Amino acid sequence: MACAVKIFARLGIGRAVHADVAREARVSVPTVFSYFPTGDELKVAVVMEVDRFLVLLVNTATRNATESEDRLKSILRAFAEAVESHPDHLKIWMDWSTVIAEPTWSKYEAFQDHVLDTFASLIERGKADGTLRTDLNATIGAHLIMGAGHMIAQMIFRHRDAQLIDEFINNVVHNALFADVRKLEHKVDSVG
Predict the structure, then answer these.
(1) Between 52 and 64, where is the model more confident?
(2) Hey, which bits of the chain come out as E strands?
(3) Which residue has the higher pLDDT, 179 or 64?
(4) pLDDT digits over 116-137, tens only?
(5) How far apart, in whole angstroms, are the C-alpha atoms of residue 21 and residue 87?
(6) Is 114 within 8 Å of 55 (Cβ atoms)?
(7) Of the candidates 188, 58, 68, the residue with the CA atom closest to the CA atom of residue 133
(8) Distance (Å, whole) CA 87 – CA 106
(9) Is the pLDDT of residue 139 over 80?
């Protein structure tokens, strides 16, 4: 699996095949087929490994933080750290989110729904305990966090400064989820 992840990160979900994995693992092609009998099974196994990794990352990131803002920032910082520690997993995740074809797309939808539900639950908890805006749509907030994870990965792959990434995380979480709507409306009115 480690060799398959490395190859899929390098070549992409649409291009990697059994022979590439065999070459990377220094085994025969039939050996790879014995683990993954079809190309579709190979693709699904790789994206499910990425799914497992990212779900664990999200769950682990929220363990030690007690407040909603800290939990959400911890998740985004965990994405940033994963780009450095597991770049192949993050490259596949980014590719996976754009390959709108089976057999992997339905797996991506299930993964995304699971993670979005986790984010939305965190946001609802924050609304209930008064640490997040009560008018906040949890589904939209969850999508903002998911999208921010993608952008953070891109920023790191483009070698953006760590301070800029941290500022981005703080701005996304604070401005999108915590800012007082009345103040934002006032700013828009005074500018417009």
Answers:
(1) 52
(2) none
(3) 64
(4) 999 999 999 888 888 888 888 9
(5) 18
(6) yes
(7) 68
(8) 23
(9) yes
pTM higher than the cut 0.85: yes
Question: Strand ranges (DSSP E) for 40-147?
Answer: none
Q: How many CA atoms lie within 13 A of 60 on its CB side?
A: 11
Q: Helices 18-25 and 2-11 sit at what angle, rounded to 10 degrees? A: 120
Separation CA 123–CA 178 (nearest Å): 10
Cβ-count burial 15-33 (b if 16+ within 10 Å, e if not): ebebebbbebbeeeeeebb
Rounded distance, CA 174 to CA 69, Å? Answer: 7
Q: Mean pLDDT over all residues of the chain? A: 90
Q: Is the peptide bond before 103 cis (omega within 30 degrees of 0)?
A: yes
Radius of gyration of the chain from its Cα atoms, rounded to whole angstroms:
19
Confidence (pLDDT) at 190: 52
- Cα atoms in the 13 Å half-sphere on the side-chain side of 69: 14
CA gap 11, 92 in Å, rounded:
10
Structure tokens at 179: 């800012």
Output phi, psi for 36, to 5 deg: -130, 90
Q: How far apart are CA 78 and CA 32, in angstroms?
A: 32
